[in-house]
């Protein structure tokens, strides 16, 4: 039998995970990264005796592969990707590749915001209910690596639109769509419709025996569902409407109804407060109900769930000023939630790589809650233009240390300092985690 060959573009978490699984499944493998491969990943590739290259793509070699897995960071219109497609070579995501080698059922979670929190929430409830479950995708070890090394009954996967763009047959038993707001439009020809189509790929291979859980208050989702048919059974959640089957609010209680079974829990008992977290909890509770986890277990899990690092994470109180790390807010909508949840006057640290942001949505909240703005980015012109007239103080900075020191000078007793950038981090930081850690470090050094 001919040995299948796979070329892997990108030597990061998803690329190296795919290589480990491909090796186990007997593929001939070549890993190619246009940039530097981190030492920790090189060690893994050497250990598994997998061929790799960095700082270049050997095109002749890549164009002979029977299948190509590309990392989510590489755009679909990259010249090499277009050449591969022109030759009819399938270009897939790690999610597609790994799903072919596991019989575990999958819970796939996507959305512009809330997907990490919801993924961790669902995984936490499943573990508390003694269900054997791995968590992967954009969180933790890669899906492919876990499929190679573990035997789980279920996987909870956090899926970005880029990962969904690279699927052919991937089919989650339960799909969750938390919301859709303009994000990453630079990768979708600045078309919101293209981005929406991408998110809905999560349900494209689902059948009548599968489930689709979604936010019924989200205009973009509802408009798409009005015009398009899906096969999966729909389970909406909402803060405003009520359903025969789905999750809703009644007298400050979350109620989840599925086929005449009902789960309820007061929102005041949730460990994470705020409207957006109530929705994340509704989505997670709906999944838990589908898997028939004991109601007591679901309630206890929701009371003790700790949340996600870099998402409205309280760092320290200094001189009665609370410092909050929301570095994970890489788009306008996430920052909207953060500002909405602030209950004090706020010094807001914002900026980075703008993905086509429209800042006007934030104006009412900035007028109401923000006393000063500290820009943290290489190019802050758009932020200065959007908010220059709203606040008395707006300052430009180029490092986290400088931003935090200025915030310390401006913030007064009973106020807050909020890092919620509304932008990607790649101009000054390695990623949003690096940005959040530098913020926490700078705060602790005050």
Keywords:
single chain, 446 residues, alpha/beta, Rossmann fold, UDP-N-acetylmuramoyl-L-alanine:D-glutamate ligase, Protein-Tyrosine Phosphatase, Chain A, 3 domains, six-stranded parallel β-sheet, six-stranded mixed β-sheet, 17 helices, 20 strands, 35% helix, 22% strand, globular
Describe the protein in words.
Belongs to the MurCDEF family. Cell wall formation. Catalyzes the addition of glutamate to the nucleotide precursor UDP-N-acetylmuramoyl-L-alanine (UMA). Residues 310-423 form the Mur ligase C-terminal domain. This is UDP-N-acetylmuramoylalanine--D-glutamate ligase. Its main location: cytoplasm. The protein has 446 residues and is of the alpha/beta class. It has three domains: 5-92, 3-Layer(aba) Sandwich (Rossmann fold); 96-304, UDP-N-acetylmuramoyl-L-alanine:D-glutamate ligase (3-Layer(aba) Sandwich), CATH 3.40.1190.10; 313-444, Mur ligase, C-terminal domain (Protein-Tyrosine Phosphatase, Chain A, Alpha-Beta Complex). The chain has helices at 13-24, 39-47, 59-62, 79-86, 94-99, 115-128, 143-149, 161-165, 192-200, 219-227, 275-290, 295-304, 332-341, 363-369, 381-387, 400-410, 432-444; strands at 5-9, 28-33, 51-54, 67-70, 91-92, 105-110, 133-137, 154-158, 174-177, 211-215, 233-237, 246-250, 253-258, 261-266, 313-318, 321-325, 346-350, 370-376, 393-397, 416-419. The strands form four sheets. The chain has a six-stranded parallel sheet, with helices on one face. It has a six-stranded mixed sheet with strand order 15-16-20-17-18-19, sandwiched between helices. Helix 6 (115-128) crosses helix 11 (275-290). The chain starts with a strand and ends with a helix.
């Amino acid at each position: 039998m001919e040995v299948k060959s796979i070329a892997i573009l990108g030597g990061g978490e998803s690329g190296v995970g795919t290589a480990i699984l491909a090796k186990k499944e007997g593929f001939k493998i070549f890993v190619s990264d246009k940039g530097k491969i981190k030492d920790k990943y090189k060690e893994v590739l050497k250990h598994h005796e997998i061929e790799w290259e960095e700082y270049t793509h050997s095109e002749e070699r890549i164009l002979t592969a029977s299948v190509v897995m590309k990392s989510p960071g590489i755009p679909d219109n990259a010249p090499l990707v277009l050449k591969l497609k022109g030759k009819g070579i399938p270009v897939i995501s790690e999610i597609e590749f790994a799903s072919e080698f596991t019989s575990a059922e999958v819970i796939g979670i996507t959305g512009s915001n809330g997907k990490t929190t919801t993924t961790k929430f669902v995984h936490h409830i499943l573990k508390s209910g003694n269900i054997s479950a791995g968590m992967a995708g954009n969180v933790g070890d890669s899906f492919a690596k876990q499929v190679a090394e573990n035997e789980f009954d279920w996987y909870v996967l956090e899926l970005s639109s880029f990962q969904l763009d690279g699927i052919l047959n991937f089919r989650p038993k339960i799909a969750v769509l938390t919301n859709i707001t303009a994000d990453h439009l630079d990768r979708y020809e600045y078309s919101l419709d293209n981005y929406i189509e991408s998110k809905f790929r999560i349900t494209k291979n689902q059948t009548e025996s599968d489930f689709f859980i979604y936010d019924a208050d989200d205009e973009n989702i509802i408009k798409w569902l009005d015009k398009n048919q899906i096969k999966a059974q729909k389970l909406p959640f909402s803060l405003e409407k009520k359903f025969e089957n789905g999750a809703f609010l009644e007298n400050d209680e979350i109620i989840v109804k599925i086929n005449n079974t009902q789960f309820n829990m007061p929102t005041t008992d949730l460990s994470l407060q705020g409207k957006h977290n109530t929705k994340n909890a509704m989505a997670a509770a709906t999944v838990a109900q589908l898997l028939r986890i004991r109601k007591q277990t679901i309630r206890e899990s929701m009371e003790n769930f700790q949340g996600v690092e870099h998402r409205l994470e309280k760092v320290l109180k200094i001189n009665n000023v609370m410092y909050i790390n929301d570095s994970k807010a890489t788009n306008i909508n996430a920052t909207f939630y953060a500002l909405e949840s602030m209950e004090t006057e706020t010094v807001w640290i914002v900026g980075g790589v703008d993905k086509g942001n429209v800042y006007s949505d934030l104006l009412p909240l900035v007028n109401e809650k923000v006393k000063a703005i500290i820009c943290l980015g290489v190019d802050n012109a758009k932020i200065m233009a959007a908010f220059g007239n709203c606040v008395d103080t707006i300052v430009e900075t180029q490092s986290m240390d400088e931003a935090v020191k200025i915030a310390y000078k401006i913030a007064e007793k009973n106020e807050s300092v909020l890092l919620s950038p509304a932008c990607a981090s790649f101009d000054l930081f390695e990623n949003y985690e690096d940005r959040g850690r530098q913020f926490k470090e700078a705060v602790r050094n005050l």
